[in-house]
Design brief:
- About 50% of the residues are buried.
- Helix 2 packs parallel to helix 8 and helix 4 runs parallel beside helix 5.
- This protein has about 575 residues and is of the alpha/beta class.
- The strands form four sheets. The protein has a six-stranded parallel beta sheet, sandwiched between helices. A six-stranded parallel beta sheet has the order 15-14-16-17-19-18, with helices on both faces. A five-stranded parallel beta sheet has the order 10-9-11-12-13, with helices on both faces.
- It is built from 23 helices and 19 strands.
- About 40% of the residues lie in helices and about 15% in strands.
């Protein structure tokens, strides 16, 4: 027995056991997972390649793109759809700058997103000693996002991630930049200490109740209105208080106008929808309540001819950001607070004997709506066979979206975007995703990936040929992950139209003209997806229905008359044209 004990002792080392260790890679993963962030969109490379591998090994979903801007657009849309910050992971310097466009767009649109970029070491950057991809990324990011942080110590990763998440989702949501120098990932600390450093956020986006006197002021103004109007913005869609907002609209009896990404909060065929009478209600209304919408360029800043006579409107605005009030016009009744709390307070204050608007106002809107819808129906049912125009093609997609309302619609372009906004009806919340407040091109494929990943639904991406060109290489990403995305490219051979000519008669084509009859469908086939060339309404209908039924990555090259389309879509007034003629 004694000999056995001696032998056993000899097997054991005399030194004390070494504590388990962890490092920056694993602490960052733990911090995200502790706060329910389990999906990353990005592009791998130095110094974050191993982080992507380890994140995937830990059970996180990691989607690798071909360009950081599109990964960022995916993260931004993920934030919009989930109310949790979407994560975008990039390499340093050029990769960071590529992602920064998406971060700025997310901030402008109030989408919660965190851009995470590896970076050079501070001691080299600060002395400008010429490190690999050297750049002071934090300084560059700060003016373009809601908040920006740098983490230098592994023990600060937990609190740094917590600050980034809270900044992204609290108050008015937006983009946050998180700078992670390369050496941070490899820093090693005690695993127990690391576990204690992880922060699980409590109530990251707390409710903000409106002041009772503000609610009373708004209700009194609504009661005085003869021609009231509700405008629903994408902020109203983001909050996911769908039943509450529907109750308010229906109890009030007030007509509503949805902005493009708010379409579907109430179905577009709802009797109170004024979408098809937009010009009338903007011009003739006397009291307008803005719910998650801003009086920016999309609403002509609340003034001008489209809003009727100066001083003819009084505005109620619901916004969580008090500085938004009076940004363009006087707001008679500001309601500062989160949308759900403000709508709840308004519903309670309305009581049980609320009087709907006058029948004259309701009937005038109904008459205008029916007239415009009948006119539109004629255009959509035109007998054009080949080539299609925008109305012919969009009429097909309008019918498909009505039959399959769970489908996620992505939409960008000039004419393709502008016509689709008014033609394609949406019946459920957060089913339409488009360019939003900035109106930028290139969101399409990133948004399509995120819509498929975050919802699991089929996706229909309706793209102008110019817009598709910004992110078209991401069709490989869609094919690689076998996502249920059907892309329809409206191909009219150019920007706006394909008919411009070089006025000098030289060999170079006009700046707005693309390769004639380009075969985007063959591009899709190159990556293993399904490519279809559609010349007619029947071709398009058959191809889209088959794609949505199969769930296979599909691109449909919809040939549109190159003479169709107008300069700059419906915002030609923003595109100055020279009146000087040189001889």
């Amino acid at each position: 027995m004694l000999e056995d004990a001696i032998l056993e002792k000899e097997k054991r080392p005399d030194t004390k056991p070494v504590n388990e260790l962890t490092d920056g890679f694993h602490l960052l993963i733990d911090a995200f997972k502790a706060n329910g962030l389990n999906t990353i969109y990005g592009v791998p490379g130095i110094p974050i390649t191993d982080f992507g591998r380890l994140a995937q090994a830990s059970g996180m979903r990691v989607f690798s793109f071909r360009h950081e801007q599109h990964a960022g657009n995916a993260a931004a849309i993920a934030g919009y759809l989930t109310k949790k910050p979407g994560l975008c992971l990039t390499v340093s310097a050029p990769g960071f700058l590529n992602g920064l466009t998406a971060l700025a767009n997310a901030t402008t649109n109030c989408f919660p997103m965190i851009l995470i970029s590896g970076s050079s070491e501070r001691e080299i950057v600060d002395l400008q000693q010429g490190d690999y991809e050297e750049m002071d990324q934090l300084a560059i990011a700060k003016p373009l996002c809601k908040a920006a942080f740098r983490i230098l110590r592994a023990e600060d990763i937990g609190i740094g991630v917590a600050r980034a998440i809270r900044a992204a989702v609290s108050g008015r949501p937006g983009g946050v930049y998180l700078d992670l120098p390369a050496k941070l990932f490899g820093q090693v600390i005690d695993a127990q200490e690391g576990a204690r450093s992880i922060v699980t956020i409590v109530d990251p986006a707390p409710s903000q109740l409106p002041a009772p006197h503000s609610v009373k002021r708004a209700i009194d103004l609504l009661k005085s209105a003869k021609r009231p109007l509700i405008i629903l913005g994408k902020g109203a869609s983001y909050v996911q208080a769908d039943e509450l907002i529907r109750s308010f609209v229906e109890k009030s009896g007030i007509p509503y106008l949805p902005m493009s990404m708010a379409k579907g909060l109430l179905p577009d065929d709802h009797p109170q929808s004024a979408g098809a009478a937009r010009s009338l209600v903007l011009k003739e209304s006397d009291v307008v309540i803005m719910v998650g919408a801003r009086l920016n360029w999309l609403l002509s800043h609340g003034k001008g001819k489209s809003w009727g006579a100066p001083g003819s409107k009084r505005f109620i605005q619901i916004d969580i950001e008090p500085r938004e009030m009076d940004s363009n016009v006087e707001i008679a009744a500001p309601l500062v607070g989160d949308i759900a709390s403000c709508i709840s307070a308004l519903l309670e204050a309305m009581g049980g004997n609320w009087q709907p608007p006058s029948s004259d106002w309701i009937q005038a809107i109904a008459q205008k709506r029916e007239t415009n819808l009948a006119r539109m129906a004629t255009k959509l049912q035109s007998n054009v066979v080949e080539p299609m125009d925008f109305h012919t093609a969009l009429g097909v997609l309008k019918k498909i979206m009505k039959e399959q309302p769970e489908t996620m619609l992505i939409n960008e372009g000039a004419n393709t975007l502008d016509f689709a906004r008014s033609i394609i009806d949406i019946y459920k919340p957060r089913k339409r995703l488009d360019v939003g407040t900035w109106g930028i091109m290139g969101i399409g494929m990133g948004a399509a990936v995120a819509a498929a990943v975050e919802t699991g639904n089929r996706v229909l991406a309706v793209e102008g040929d110019s817009a598709f060109g910004f992110s078209g290489m991401e069709v490989e990403t869609i094919c690689r992950y076998n996502l249920p995305v059907c892309i329809v490219v409206f191909n009219n051979n150019g920007i706006y139209r394909g008919t411009d000519v070089n006025p000098t008669g030289g060999p170079e084509v006009a700046p707005t003209v693309f390769v004639k009859d380009a075969r985007y469908d063959i591009m899709m086939q190159a990556f293993g997806g399904i490519g279809v060339l559609a010349h007619t309404r029947d071709d398009l209908s058959k191809a889209v229905n088959e794609a949505l039924e199969s769930g296979k990555p599909t691109l449909i090259n919809a040939v549109i008359d190159e003479n169709a389309g107008t300069e700059s879509g419906r915002i030609g007034n923003l595109n100055p044209q020279s009146i000087v003629t040189k001889t």
